Amino acid sequence: MRRLNHPNLDEVTLVKALSALGDPIRLEIVRKLSDGQEHQGSELDVKVAQSTLSHHFTTLRNAGVVFIRPEGTRCWHSLRPEFDQRFPGLLTKVLELL
Amino acid sequence: MRRLNHPNLDEVTLVKALSALGDPIRLEIVRKLSDGQEHQGSELDVKVAQSTLSHHFTTLRNAGVVFIRPEGTRCWHSLRPEFDQRFPGLLTKVLELL
């Protein structure tokens, strides 16, 4: 089965994390994934083209925020629990301020 | 006396704040200003050209993070206390994770 590359959280810097979160589309994605469930991109109802959405997911994946699980021709997205271990409370604080 | 434009914090979005913080130089500036004092740019010992530093200060000013007080030919920089009222705990969290 195809598997996407996900960074070791130790290699993700705070700058990279903040930069990934500092975008309106990516923040909307994170908010929608904060229900703790896996979602397909199309379910999230983000008003951008599929290619743009895919680009934002890649940025979030590279920053350790999002896990992407391919299944056949679909991709399931969820927040990585390890992100909160790497940056305790950051995502909670950001979501609280949204 | 010359006075620079500083945004009303109500107009600063979380995205803009996170985006301003998501840069290594700007995060270094914020860390150095977190002593609560006013500093001239040159005091901060950030290893970039003066023009680059000035650009980063402008980004931080536009995001409501930094107050810049011109005095003659010098500029004094400090963190804006209102930022923490707008985004309670965000800067504290970011500084804690640095």
Automatic annotation (TrEMBL), chains A, B:
<dbReference type="InterPro" id="IPR036390">
    <property type="entry name" value="WH_DNA-bd_sf"/>
</dbReference>
<keyword id="KW-0238">DNA-binding</keyword>
<dbReference type="InterPro" id="IPR011991">
    <property type="entry name" value="ArsR-like_HTH"/>
</dbReference>
<feature type="domain" description="HTH arsR-type">
    <location>
        <begin position="6"/>
        <end position="98"/>
    </location>
</feature>
<dbReference type="GO" id="GO:0003677">
    <property type="term" value="F:DNA binding"/>
</dbReference>
<dbReference type="InterPro" id="IPR001845">
    <property type="entry name" value="HTH_ArsR_DNA-bd_dom"/>
</dbReference>
<protein>
    <submittedName>
        <fullName>Transcriptional regulator</fullName>
    </submittedName>
</protein>
<keyword id="KW-0805">Transcription regulation</keyword>
<dbReference type="InterPro" id="IPR051081">
    <property type="entry name" value="HTH_MetalResp_TranReg"/>
</dbReference>
<dbReference type="GO" id="GO:0003700">
    <property type="term" value="F:DNA-binding transcription factor activity"/>
</dbReference>
<dbReference type="Pfam" id="PF01022">
    <property type="entry name" value="HTH_5"/>
</dbReference>
<keyword id="KW-0804">Transcription</keyword>
<dbReference type="InterPro" id="IPR036388">
    <property type="entry name" value="WH-like_DNA-bd_sf"/>
</dbReference>
